[in-house]
Amino acid sequence: MAETGQQEPQYERYEGGSPEAERLVFEQLAAELMKVQVKNRRAGGGGIARTFHAKAPVAVENARLRFHDDLPAALRAGFAQPGAEYPATVRLSNASGIRQGDGSPDLRGAAVRVRVSEEESHDLLATSYPVSHARNAREFVAFAKAMAGARSPVRKAFGLFVKLPLAVGLGTANRMRRNVRAATRHTVDSLANETFWSRGAILWGEAGPVRFLLRPAPGTPAAPSADRRDPDLLHREFAHRLARTDVSYDLCVQRYVDERRTPVEDASVEWRDGVSPAIAVARLTIPSQDLDSAETRATARRVEDLAFNPWYTTDEFRPLGNINRARKAAYQAASAHRLGLRFVTEEPLRNRVLGRPVEAAFAILNRYVPWHRLPLQLSLLNLVFLRKVLRRLNLIDTEPREAPPKAQPVPAPIPERLRGERSYDGTYNDLSEPRMGAVGAAFGRNLKPEYRPDLFDTPNPVTVSRQLLYRESFVPASSLNVLAAAWIQFQVHDWVNHRRHKPGERSVEVPLPPGSGPWHNTPGGPGENVMRFAENEGIEVPGRPPILFGNNASHWWDGSEVYGEDEQTARFLREADGRAELRLEDGHLPGGSNGHIPLTGFNESWWMGLSAMHTLFAREHNAVCAALRAEYPTMSEERIYQTARLVVSALIAKIHTVEWTPAILATEAIDIALKTNWQGPPKNWLNQLGLWLLEAHSLTGIPKTLPDHHTAPYSLTEDFVTVYRMHPLVPDDFELREHHFGQRLETVGFMDIQGGAAETQIRKTGLANTLYSFGIAHPGAITLHNYPRALQRFERDGEIIDLSVVDLVRTRRRGVPRYNDFREGLHKQRIRSFEELTENAETLARLKDVYRSVDEIDTVVGLFGENPPTGFGFSDTAFRIFILMASRRLQSDRFLNVDYRPEVYTPLGIDWVEKGGMDSVILRHCPELAALLPRGASAFAPWRTVRPTSDGNTDGNVNGVVNGNVNGGVNDHG
């Protein structure tokens, strides 16, 4: 007999041969059932209803289930004990997914939740026919799809006799139709006289599999004939009956005999009473009451909001069989959809029909002409279809999932406050899957990982760094300013953070190539023949290679670099006495104890550029708080704080989408595409018509759409982390100037403004002069031979590391495919020779010297070496990850679409985001910079340079300005 909590192989067989293979099937079937709900809503009107059993004539919370005193010893398990009595919620329903009159031919259903304790309950679901029309979940969903939205006799006939045979075959369709006809032929005059059978088997402790049924208790009177035209006849009859007396059902079980006569996997076979007699074990009683009082009507509304699921039970009573295993995912998806926690984005038929040939045509065209060399409208349309392909093929869920399904308690209610505010750790962004994208959630993948421990040190990453990455002379990115470099680091710290082991606890060792000299791994430490740095902390999953890692930041675009990743940090950063503002000292971040690095949400890898961004957006938060307090005087401080978090986070997302990205990918097509992501396409008839025909979802900006995770639960990915390795943007030295007269203040190296020195320097220079100095200076180009020297030997957490080597090693050890496989996985043609990557003779010679073949080229090296499209600041290969993930970060986040609305953000908050941008943030806090910002370009383009004058009198004014504003550091923050 079964040991409690374990699967019995003689009872259950997994589709696809394994629980995981079956889980993937069930997830897809659950998504199909959500589409059925949409079709049923169209046919029945109103909102999204249950996929089946949409209308409940009876719903009560005060029923009781009492086990019989003479309960057989073999059936005593868990909560099933002699004389045990429990409260129960009961919902009796019509089976159709379309709300229709009670007199319509239909099956009926019963859902009973037995409440044993606060922690334990058991959902018992049954239907008024002994067997299911479907053997398994695939047949069940095929029938649901065939009958979706079928209200009229003609549409029902079309579904049964045309759509169903096409889906399951003629023989199976005939069997299913016979079962359905037999089940619905029965005339129902009272739900009190109906018997309800479980759909499939459940485990009953040591007794093994059983099917259960609820049948009217002996002596239940029959109902008089009713007016079949009365749409609520079953409710009226039951209410009339309950007004006089209790209504009771016997809970009975049929025990498993053998796989032929009482199969577990085939739900379409009846467990006949002659083979397995029904044994009464308990009685369910609905007490006499007025079903039409205000109190019971309110009760019925609460019951309608419940999500019943046979897996809300314990291991001793878990469901068994294919249909039951599918029900967990299916019911969770359908109930979340019904309750507005999960969403369906429908693709119009015209898009599906016209899109396939257009997608195929672009796939052929792209073999000969890159998208960026096409005419503007064609290139935009090409990008639309490339993104569709990437969404379909390049979203891989890596999070360890439950397979096979497990019993669980009824989920706790969603905290009401988190419906309208972001959590601190990223939980409850997706209300139907609270842990999705939260702190600790695993990084996903865009490409199947390649774990090759034998190639971790081939070729030697130190050699690769010295030969191909080392900055021999600074190569500027002349279309950008250094604020763009600071911005992307500011963003990456919000998005991704691999947790590291403590130094010395668990390290990676990289052997130095012969003749390269010793490396000092710690300040003042001995010279060694290896580089050593802390290893990442992984997530161990049996049977998987050790390349799964959790994100120590939340995956959402939630401003966590400003606010922190947990409530303790967030509250610590606020003003005293619970005020909504963030703590500032004379307009700057408060100092910390760790070498004077300031207090903020994320302060690792700290330098002056990061300090400027954090200071600017801490001030912006406080400005939003002040505006909200003035506009809404009765708003609490906590509500002001949470609303300001939403506003600042959304403003950051908008700036990155419509300003930073078009600045670094400076082409008209990208400018249009990114603005379309936020605000919709240009309002001309050709764009509108093209999108209406081929991709209607893009007719509005993403903030006006519904959340959509496409083919995998939302997460950021290891491949995304790889393409955002943009360290060449950082210069090795900086000239600091004052903005009034353009005079040079001083020239500093990166190490002079890094770590604790950054705060001293920014307070000395002042925020306005810092922004100006970075605004007129160019960052480095993202290319080979341009890695910052300062980052190739610097101290972090007590270690001296070469970050370029770390970048290479991390990418290899995390299983990110090498460059050629990376290209191919993103639907680009492989390169066949080194000459296809670069035409630079010196680089070409070094590539051939370092790598044995093009297939060995490191991903980072290939991305830096690739010749980008005109105007692009990084490669087209990296761009493919970008166009997939850039829109995904908006599309998946409910606070940037379905809950990006005045009711959540306040009207002022929405207006703040819609009218705001990087220019407005800078000018709000440093208005004196107004004349210096670029005209007709974003704040990440080079600013106007103030020409210094040699006039002696002017120099005196400069000294006054410097002494008053720069050294004081308090008059530049507005």
UniProtKB/TrEMBL annotation:
UniProt keyword Nucleotide-binding present: yes
Region Disordered, annotated ranges: 401-421, 950-974
Low complexity biased stretches: 956-974
Essential cofactor(s): Ca(2+)
GO MF entry, a single one: ATP binding
Sorted UniProt keywords: ATP-binding, Dioxygenase, Fatty acid biosynthesis, Fatty acid metabolism, Heme, Iron, Lipid biosynthesis, Lipid metabolism, Metal-binding, Nucleotide-binding, Oxidoreductase, Oxylipin biosynthesis, Peroxidase, Plant defense
InterPro entries named in the record: A_dioxygenase, Catalase_sf, Haem_peroxidase_animal, Haem_peroxidase_sf, Haem_peroxidase_sf_animal, Oxylipin_biosynth_metab
Superkingdom to which the source organism belongs: Bacteria
One Pfam family of this chain: An_peroxidase
Name of the protein: Peroxidase
Source organism per UniProt: Streptomyces cylindrosporus
